[in-house]
Design goal:
The structure holds 2 protein chains of 2 kinds.
Chain A: H1 2-31, H2 36-46, H3 51-62, H4 70-82, H5 96-131, H6 136-150, H7 153-167, H8 187-203, H9 206-223, H10 226-233, H11 238-275, H12 281-291, H13 294-322
Helix pairs in contact in A: 1-4, 1-13, 2-3, 5-6, 5-8, 5-9, 5-11, 6-9, 7-8, 7-11, 9-11, 10-11, 11-12, 11-13, 12-13
Chain B: H1 33-53, H2 56-73, H3 75-78, H4 110-146, H5 148-163, H6 166-176, H7 183-191, H8 195-209, H9 213-220, H10 225-261, H11 274-283, H12 293-321, H13 323-336
Classes of the chains: A mainly alpha, B mainly alpha.
Chain lengths: 334, 354
């Protein structure tokens, strides 16, 4: 089958991307003009640690040995990374991997809800607009969608925070879980988690504005196709036509658009988690950036990238299930 | 005109036949320089403007973008930069006309902050959009046209940049590199995470035209690659490229403001911009009191406004470059001899915003 060749290439490409990212983080720490590594050593020496010990500490925390020549240090670094040793955070003094294990699930939780809700809102609103094309409803919804598309997610996030959390107190203002409730499968805990995630999820609804415009365009294009006329002539029921013909063909490009926006949503979590003090991956990454906690910063960036790259790979490989036409093609498909 | 009985007399030969070679025909009309200018004017100024002006979205888009350009270019000449304790703290908007949009917690005029920051943002947009689009177009066109090993290398690099989460990368680079507050540098930094998608799109466009006759002809004539790419291929993609300029501009605004909001980029208190305004309002807990709401709203409205303008402008540019809409304009312009505008049937064709 042709598919196998394409899949192998796609996986190879993923591995290549991950290698580039690891190399990039190494280069940033080791070769940057500011030399973060040297700065860390200097800092420790100024704190009264003797130079040899300072170098050793930095080596431990960054998993890069500052004394070794660059090629050897690079190999060591790659070896450490592959073993899942991302170094030790300067600020929290615990392995970066532990902090990631603690925060990543929360980010994934919020993101999957955002993705799910904005996808379905985009599809439904877009289909409505296309169905009543040119009507008052269409003009109104189009204007709404353009306004949503022009609003950065963090602007919506701040507005939601001001009104829904601080003014009206409907949702909590910060945090990720209810205080004073023991974690577990109790209604109080689960509903508390949902309430804390609600505002970050709602902020991502701006994405549905853009998506609905895309869906509208796709549906209108499909509505004009000849095969719909043929389907009608064949006497197929309206339900069959709308679900099997219109929806299927109009949703496919949406799926692609969402794959591409995935990376942006992950990136957006940095800002959102800061606004809502939601301690996920993005929150820790930003705090690491403020503290100049290089091991944590680089580790978070690496994991964020791995998450995005793997998500794209999975989505890409499953794409042929959604669209049988996409199987066996080159990487042009998405 | 050749077969028109009234005008054929000078074309008829002694043997009664007509002119046989088209090369012998000389135009009956002499095109004066004025005519030529009028045609150029119609093709490059009148037609686009007339097409665009028919559409309500285009009218709003152009007006908004023009408004921001004026605000950024002329505004700083008219409105003085603001200072701490220039006025009382947290004046409400539209109450004291010395501070039409109100003041922040240190008595700084928000209108002045907004206007002066427009200039900075326009600089970021200029360098950011030019770099994103320029780099993306060149890489994409080269990869698509050359194919083979060049394509493999360039496409692999492009794929890496598409897959990377752009904003975190830009964030790290902004924190580690000595960027400073130079708006042009900020724009270039932001293009790091944005050019990939465009390069991919341009490449697939080039793949569709690389076997067109005019490209084959140029190749057959031995014209060097860079001239074919720049003189033959890229001009054909210009519409697409120009529309992408507006999208790139929007992205630059969003990300630049986010970087300043997160206080990752350094700023001086003399050069506040929309992102810094949001940052200070957030950092000073302005969300706690109702009196400070306008401190958030002023920069928010500024961002959303220019972004709406750019989206609408991008959509209307799509219409200007759309050959079918153009042809319709030329027909109506020929029939009515000018500015007469026809109501558009497909007024609402919003296809791609992203």
């Amino acid at each position: 089958m042709v598919n196998i060749g394409w899949r192998t290439r796609r996986i190879g490409q993923t591995v290549f991307t991950l290698w580039v990212v690891l190399t990039l983080t190494f280069a940033l720490v080791r070769l940057l003009p500011g030399n973060p590594m040297g700065a860390m050593v200097q800092q420790l020496i100024q704190q009264g640690v003797n130079p040899a010990r300072a170098r050793h500490l930095v080596e431990l925390r960054l998993s890069v040995d500052p004394n070794k020549p660059i090629p050897y240090a690079y190999l060591d670094y790659m070896g450490n990374m592959l073993q899942g040793n991302l170094g030790i955070s300067m600020y929290y003094s615990e392995p970066v991997v532990d902090i990631i294990a603690r925060s990543l699930p929360w980010t994934l939780f919020v993101l999957s809800w955002s993705l799910f809700i904005s996808f379905f809102m985009g599809v439904i609103i877009g289909a409505l607009m296309a169905y009543w094309e040119g009507s008052k409803l269409d003009v109104g919804l189009t204007s709404w969608a353009i306004l949503m598309g022009s609003t950065p997610y963090y602007v919506l996030a701040l507005l939601l925070l001001i009104f829904f959390a601080y003014r009206w107190g409907i949702f909590p203002t910060s945090g990720r879980q209810p205080t004073g409730v023991a974690p577990g499968f109790s209604w109080a805990y689960i509903s508390g988690i949902l309430r804390h995630a609600a505002l970050p999820v709602l902020s991502m609804l701006v994405a549905s504005g853009v998506a609905s415009l895309g869906m509208r365009g796709n549906s209108i294009r499909v509505l004009g196709e000849n095969y719909l006329r043929v389907a009608r002539l064949r006497g197929l029921s309206d339900i069959t036509i709308s679900t099997q013909y219109v929806a299927r063909n109009a949703v496919l490009p949406m799926y692609t658009a969402f794959l591409i926006s995935l990376g942006e949503m992950f990136g957006g979590s940095v800002v959102l988690e800061q606004v809502f003090s939601y301690r996920g991956l993005g929150w820790y990454m930003l705090s690491a950036t403020y503290q100049r906690d290089y091991p944590l910063m680089m580790g978070m960036f690496t994991i964020l990238t791995v998450a995005v790259v793997l998500a794209l790979l999975i989505a890409d490989l499953t794409y042929s299930f959604v669209d049988p036409r996409a199987g066996g093609q080159t990487n042009e498909t998405y | 005109m050749r077969n028109d009985p009234q005008t054929t007399d000078r074309d008829v030969r002694t043997d009664g036949g007509n002119v046989s070679s088209p090369f012998e025909i000389v135009s009956e009309y002499e095109e004066s320089r004025r005519d030529r200018y009028r045609k150029l004017y119609d093709a490059y100024v009148h037609a686009p403007v007339a097409i665009v002006w028919r559409d309500w979205r285009a009218r709003i888009g152009f007006t908004l973008v023009l408004f921001y350009l004026l605000m950024g270019l002329v505004g700083p000449l008219l409105i003085e930069p603001t200072e701490v304790t220039e006025g009382p703290a947290l004046v409400q908007p539209f109450e004291n006309w010395a501070y039409p949009l109100g003041t922040d917690n240190m008595g700084r005029d928000l209108l002045s902050q907004t206007v002066h920051s427009t200039t900075t943002i326009l600089k970021m947009i200029t360098s950011g959009a030019l770099f994103t689009v320029g780099f993306g177009t060149i890489v994409g066109a080269l990869a698509g046209y050359k194919g083979g090993i060049v394509d493999t290398i360039l496409s692999s690099i492009t794929d890496v940049f598409i897959n990377l989460p752009g904003f975190p990368l830009v964030m790290i680079l902004a924190a580690l590199l000595p960027i400073g507050g130079n708006p042009y540098m900020v724009g270039i930094l932001l293009s790091v995470g944005a050019w990939g998608g465009l390069a991919r799109a341009i490449r697939s466009q080039v793949l569709t035209i690389r076997h067109e006759a005019f490209v084959e002809a140029a190749r057959g004539m031995g014209i060097p690659t860079h001239r074919i790419v720049f003189k033959e291929i890229i001009p054909h993609l210009m519409p697409y490229v120009v529309i992408n300029l507006t999208n790139a501009a929007r992205r630059v605004i969003f990300e630049a403001v986010a970087l300043y909001f997160l206080a990752i980029l350094p700023f001086k208190s003399s050069s506040l911009n929309w992102g810094v305004m949001l940052n200070q309002a957030y950092a000073k807990n302005a969300y706690l009191t109702a009196e400070a709401l306008h401190w958030f709203l002023v920069p928010m409205i500024a961002i959303v406004g220019i972004s709406v303008g750019l989206i609408l402008l991008g959509q209307s540019l799509d219409r200007v470059f759309n050959p079918r809409v153009r042809a319709r304009h030329e027909r109506t312009a020929a029939e009515n001899g000018g500015l007469e505008s026809k109501k558009n049937e497909d007024d609402m064709n919003v296809n791609d915003v992203v």
